[in-house]
Each structure stands twice: as structure tokens, then as C-alpha cells.
Amino acid sequence: MSDSRIMKRHTAAPSGGPVVFNFEDVRKRGEDYKLQVREQCRQMILDATTEAETLREKALAEGMREGRENGLRNARQEIEEQAKRLADQLVQQKLESALSSMQSLFQQLNAAGQQCRAEWECDLVSLSAAIAGKIMRIELSHHPERVLELTQDVVELVIGRRSIELRLNPQDMESFGSRLQQMIEENTHGAAVRLTADELVTPGGCLVRTEHGEVDGRLETMLDRITEELLDGVE
Length: 235
Description:
Elements: E1 6-7, E2 20-21, H1 23-142, H2 146-155, E3 163-168, H3 170-188, E4 192-197, E5 206-210, E6 213-216, H4 219-234
Parallel strand pairs: 3-4
Antiparallel strand pairs: 1-2, 3-5, 5-6
Helix pairs in contact: 1-4, 2-3
């Protein structure tokens, strides 16, 4: 080996002699290779950085998109829940209002039913009284002697009075006057009795007057009194 040349071991020269290399060439090739490797590394770093940035931006965009979708989904769910709560409240209010209206309607119907029933009962009482009056008059027309019984019932209310005036319908006075006079004198034990014909007294009834007052025994008066008592019970 000389001071300026290097021989590569195990390598044969084309002419069969030793191969000699220049050190500066080897060093230069080494530097070039290092630069090449460095450039490749830098490029790889740039490429990796670019790809990472791209992935980051893509991930950010995807995250924002998912975030918006989730936000919209959550907002939609919240809106639906609020709408359901509001609908439930409105339904509850409507039901309470409807229930209150129904209760008021039932009360009105009940009051109207009671009023109708009371009016019907009043009409029934009045009709019954009218029918009773007709029946009594028919009965008296077929059995005139019943006047004696009716008159005796009224006179018994004034037994013990010193003077009695009995006012009768002229027709009854003509038919039963003497018999009534005798009956009253027998039942009143010597009281002064006077019979008077009065056209204001309807057939079958009588009007009794004493020193202490008057007893109205006319049929219509008795029916009115019975009707009033029945109507008081209805009210």
C-alpha cells in the first residue's frame, strides 16, 4: 500500500493487478449518500406531517359532523320530550276542564231532573185533586144522601158552640134541610141552629159559622187544602 491509495480486499483488477480507490471519492460518495438519506428522511417527515395534518383535519371535520348530528339528535329528542310534556299537560288540562264541565252538566241535569220531577209531582197532585173532585161530585149525584155524612163531619168540628149557622147550596137545602136541622140539633145539645141557602156554596159542601169563627166545608176548599198539604211535601 502507498501513502495515497487503498486496495479493496478480495477484489481482482481487470488486468489481474490490485484495485486502488481514492479516499476523497469514497468520502464524497459517503457525504452524498448521507445527504440523500437525510433528504429522504426529511421528505418522509414532511409526508408524515402532511398526512397527519390531513388525518387531523379529517378527524376534526368528522368529529364536527358527528357533533352536529348528535347535537341535532339531542335537540330533536329534547324538542320531542318537551312537546310530549306539553301535550300531556294540555291533555290533562282538557280532561280536567271536560271533567269540570261534565260535573257541572250532571249537576244541571240533576237539578233539571229534580225540577221536572217536582213539577210533574205538582201537576200529578193537581190532576189527582181535580179527578177526586170529579169523582166526589159523580158520587154525590148518584148518592145525594152522602151530603148528610159530609155535613155531619163538618158540624162535629163546632160541637159545643152556642149558635151555629149552616149555609148550604139551595139544592141541598131543599133536599136535606129538615133532616140536617134535626141532625145538628141532636148533636149540638140545644145550640141555636140556623140553616141558610147560599148559592156560593157548591152542591155537597157547606159553610159553618159560629160565634168563634167559620169552618169552610165546601168541597173545593177541602180539595185545595189537601192539594196544598201534598204540594208542601213535594217542595
